[in-house]
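Following up on my earlier message about S-adenosylmethionine. Here are the inputs again, as you asked, copied directly from the submission form:
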Amino acid sequence: MVDEMHPDEPGSSGDQDLLHGLSDLLDRRCGIAATVYASAAAMPGATHRHRGPAAFAITVAAVTSSRTLSRPRRAMSTTSPVNKRRLIQDHVAGKSFVDIGGLWGTKGEMVTTAAAGGAERLMMADIQAPGNTWWQKFEARCAEKGVDNCEQLQVDICAPDAPSRLGQFDVVHCAGVMYHVADLFQFVGNLVSVTREHLVLSSVVMPDEIQGPAGALSFGPDHAYLAPVLSEQNRNVVLGHLRAHDLKAAGLTDSAAYFDQGRTRFGPWWWLFSGTFMSALVRLHGLDVIAEGPSRGGHAYTVFAKVAADTHRA
Ligand SMILES: C[S@@+](CC[C@H](N)C(=O)[O-])C[C@H]1O[C@@H](n2cnc3c(N)ncnc32)[C@H](O)[C@@H]1O
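Thanks, got it. Here's what our run produced:
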């Protein structure tokens, strides 16, 4: 498989830790639940782009008394950077957890994170052939971290029978898959079907707007671009952005087959979308988004969503 960048860095950057630390401090010491933003212009809208610590100004916004909020904290939707590992650990104690598409690269897997958070049941579910090198590397990592109770399932999350094969899990994590799949509705729909409580969805995203010598292109909450049919003009704008950030994208910066005997293939970049599009799609499927934001470097985005009372109702 060809991939281009890691969609979510393990752990948090120093900047994210600083922001979360400040948020925690305000909560614990002052009884204030606050969204803490870092931006050069001290504007929440500027937080999608990561800036160096020297350029940071800190903005505290959306302040309410946390004593009126029930746990977990940050029950409001926010676009400050998301510390995914911490979110998972905060919500998984005594719960069942599955990482869908967690194998490739190994370091992005969240099974061992969920184990550290006290998850009761663990599963890795991936399309990779059982026993291949990625499963072996994952098993070695589990052994290294002292995790000996992880179930394994080979599954295509876009297949119609994926929900029945997986069953439901309290917490579902899926990262680095969304922009590679052709059928976004089958993909998100199946993830929602197998989620009993919380879904943690991460993907590489485009900024809300890109600009370069070839022109500008905006990525709003109401649209995504289908990469293989981009107009020449828009393709050049996208290529300029990817190259400026030293990003490789199968199908765009490198040639890749999108179809195999008339069927869509996983692997190339199918869709180009922003983080706000991701969260709009998750809301459209009936989930409440309770936190969302960029990962380190700003090229990936995480949506943390909760199944609503009527999400699974027919
Ligand atoms: C880019 S990697 C992301 C790995 C990891 N989640 C991370 O963030 O580093 C994509 C992973 O999804 C798996 N995958 C691809 N298509 C899949 C599908 N249809 N169903 C389940 N897993 C899939 C691949 O085998 C691979 O392990």
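One observation from looking it over: Confidence is low (pLDDT under 50) at residues 1-78. Hope that helps, and feel free to reply on this thread.
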